[in-house]
Amino acid sequence: MNKKHKTIPVFVPHLGCPQDCLFCNQKKITGELQQVTAERVQELIQIAAKHKQERETLEIGFFGGSFTGISPAVQEALLKPALEAKKQGILDGIRLSTRPDYINQEVIDRLLRFGVTTVELGAQSMDDEVLKRANRGHEAVQTVEAARMIKANGLGLGLQMMIGLPGDTLKKTLQTAEAFCEMEPACVRMYPTLVIKETALAELWKANKYQPLSLDDAVDWCKQLYQIFTAKQIDVIRMGLLNMKPEDVLAGPYHPSFGELVLSAACYDELKKAVTGYPSKFLRLQMHPSYVSVLCGHRKKNIMKLKEEFGFEDIKIIHAESMRRGSFKVLTPIR
Fold first, then answer.
1. Cβ distance 234 to 186 under 8 Å?
2. How far apart are the C-alpha atoms of 130 and 128, rounded to whole Å?
């Protein structure tokens, strides 16, 4: 049985970040208005420890800002309670997110001293023109070098990308995915670009100088990315932003269950392959109960599409607790 994984999220909005990226308002994105303290980190760990299950891995993750851009003293103060909890066996890992241009050997040595296990790089795109228009302040080559150093020092590598930034296209997005695969990360996160209040991007949108992706296009792009990454055994750990207040999003493909929409779209592609040539108008599908909502799709969209495309008169879903989560089986029709 696989262990269940849980991450304690600690948000450090805009802390340590030297840039005002076009799309960014960290306090709106994370929902955090106050900077975190070492005492708060310790409190969050203690709360999570009380609820840790026997077959569960627990890690802490510092997200939101550019962690390695914080002063070394503050970095160490925040990491110290996490390191102590890791030594005590409470935590199994410590991860953080940062900018590619805020990684060097001195930084990595500090992270290793304080027990960090995974570093996620906010790469966003591997197209320099897209990065420039987003006011990222770094180039794609810096992401490649930072990724190399992280892996060379035995740390886990995560990469984060945004789709639909100004100047982005599906072709550029797919090229970014291929560049990510060449860096061989353990995991990736994918975020569609949203127009958030009090950002430079919001001003461009109001002036009709930027048009975000539609929800359908964002789901389709991310579906293709998901298929690329999973084919390379790269874990996709997040699709879409969490903790967003709908009133803070002025425009763009926001959906509270964005990740499930992407998984459902990818699942439909697999369903089409599996049912082609099925010798009956009465389809029987078996799966773990937890996968039913993904397979059926939002408002049973996938079921309706199967009926329309293949002429099925009825589709029966059969639960099987013994099946692997995230998989389905096409059963032989009953004669």
1. yes
2. 5
